[in-house]
Amino acid sequence: MSDVLLHVSGVSKRFGGLQALNDVHLRIERGLVYGLIGPNGAGKTTFFNVITGLYTPDSGTFELAGLPYQPTAVHAVARAGIARTFQNIRLFADMTALENVMVGRHIRSRSGLWGAILRTPGFKFEEAAIARRAQELLDYVGIGNLADYKARTLSYGDQRRLEIARALATEPQLLALDEPAAGMNATEKVALRALIERIRTDGVTVLLIEHDVKLVMGLCDRVTVLDYGRRIAEGTPAEVQKNEQVIEAYLGHAGAQAAAEATS
Fold first, then answer.
1. CATH number corresponding to 1-81+172-264
2. 90-171: CATH topology
3. What is the DSSP string of 31-97?
4. pLDDT digits (tens, 9 = 90+) for 3-53
5. Cα separation of 86 and 264, whole Å?
6. Any idea where the domains of the chain sit in the sequence?
7. Hey, how many other C-beta atoms are within 10 angstroms of the C-beta on 225?
């Protein structure tokens, strides 16, 4: 099995006169927490949307676990083994936490439409198994006691955890997190870091967009920096925070010092 989990090459995306991504390359090895950072408008979320099937790229090649995949539909990408969360939380607000995770799990179900309509024994057995697994994942992210609460009643931090649980329900090889710490307080960020480290330890590779530089530099194994849709740096956190182009475009000297403290 190849050590490279995700390999994308030559990815470009234009919206009218805006070149959002320009010949971006990314190579993520298995077992890493990999950071994607850059200033606002750098193309980070566009890149996420391309590799997860929300946007169709103008060009680029895509491989997951050594096999080509085409990011043309969200469900196809999820089946291939990539799951994601969103910068703006996208939960089913009037469904319970358990039901939200069960929705994510259904992409791996086998009963099909007629099984659901006819309520066959196989369908009922599978639904019970999906519910059990959903509860296990809620326990895993630390909100198992909130299974019967509607998603809209959960705190912001718990909604973030619920999104992660739903993404994990698809059994991803790669978990793509789009600003998971946004809006969290310091205590919630510490808990989030511990959760991401646990996910990595349990065999799921993580791709992380995050504006909290200290969190990225203290958590990620490798980091890529985008600016105006181009990759301007890639390397370990220590290497990236010393890159003069990154300091000028994104970190600033104060930010570079904060990043250095996070990795020291």
1. 3.40.50.300
2. Rossmann fold (3.40.50)
3. T-EEEEE-STTSSHHHHHHHHTTSS--SEEEEEETTEE---S-HHHHHHHTEEE--SS----TTSBH
4. 999 999 999 999 999 999 999 999 999 999 999 999 989 999 999 999 999
5. 30
6. 1-81+172-264, 90-171
7. 25
